[in-house]
Design brief:
Length: 100
């Protein structure tokens, strides 16, 4: 899989995971002003910006906030999910089509 064919929500999850679990200790030996903290901050920022892009694309598909069939508690739980998790959950319950 290359970067152009990778789903954006998968890339977001990978960036978040790497920023949380990698220590980037080798940056200290390389030098150049990059620290592990700045590398992690960069990856988190990339994930946030890409997540915004994914969210704007997914908003067109299904508006959870406007759905009258879901309780307030269900909407609260769904709001905590990543776009990919939200899509999987809504698809599993038949609220959106698998093709979308």
């Amino acid at each position: 899989m290359n970067i152009k064919s990778m789903p954006k929500d998968v890339a977001v999850e990978l960036l978040r995971y790497i920023s949380e679990h990698e220590d980037f200790g080798s940056l200290e030996t390389i030098g150049g002003g990059a620290s592990p903290a700045t590398a992690k901050a960069l990856l988190r920022e990339l994930a946030v910006e890409l997540a915004k892009e994914v969210e704007s694309e997914h908003k067109e598909r299904y508006d959870v906030k406007a759905c009258k069939n879901l309780s307030k508690q269900a909407k609260t739980v769904i709001s905590c999910l990543s776009p990919r998790e939200e899509k999987s959950l809504l698809t599993a319950f038949g609220l959106i089509d698998k093709q979308k």
